[in-house]
Specification:
It is a single chain. The chain has 165 residues and is α+β, with helices and mostly antiparallel strands. 18% of the residues lie in helices and 27% in strands. The strands form two sheets. The protein has a four-stranded antiparallel β-sheet, covered by helices on one side. A hairpin with a 6-residue loop joins strand 1 and strand 2.
């Protein structure tokens, strides 16, 4: 599984009911937040992201939250393999990218502009048609632009489940 959303350390994110589950990467002393790997309204998606984060973030302190409650905390085994210069503005896509083809029919995407916080629903089928099933979120995020602000982006994609009928 991949990143449901990437947040910058200290970045203001919209607080919604959909932000129940999140996975954060902290420094070993638990003094500084390096990145938020995943935010999801779905426990199953969050558990899959947790397992992927353990495998793909060796030597890092991971904390899995349900709202403010710490569900799991682990210093992952192994040595840190991501050099500090790979972390650009708090975003690390290495090894945690989601391909558009990994999305299911019950997923809906929300695009957030990091400049003006404008957000809009994006149809996965439209992105797949334009970029292909193998396109990774990191590539698609760089190609998208905000239609609301003068700056045009950058854009962050989030995965959400369609509401049940």
């Amino acid at each position: 599984m991949g990143s449901a959303s990437i947040a910058l350390a200290g970045e203001a994110m919209a607080k919604t009911a959909e932000d129940n589950f999140r996975i954060e990467v902290w420094d070993r002393e638990e003094q500084g937040l390096s990145e938020t790997i995943s935010r999801s309204p779905d426990s199953t998606v969050s558990q899959a992201a947790w397992q992927a984060a353990i495998r793909r973030r060796p030597g890092m302190l991971l904390i899995h939250y349900n709202s403010r409650h710490v569900m799991e905390k682990i210093l992952t085994p192994g040595e840190v393999t991501i050099p500090p210069q790979t972390i650009i503005a708090g975003s690390v896509h290495a090894g945690l990218d989601v391909a558009l083809g990994d999305l299911r029919e019950w997923h809906v995407l929300r695009a957030w502009c990091r400049s003006c916080s404008h957000h809009a629903t994006v149809k996965p089928a439209g992105l797949i048609k334009r970029y292909g099933k193998g396109a990774l979120f990191s590539s698609v995020e760089r190609a998208l632009f905000c239609t609301s602000c003068d700056r045009g982006g950058p854009v962050r994609l989030e995965i959400h489940k369609l509401p049940r009928n």
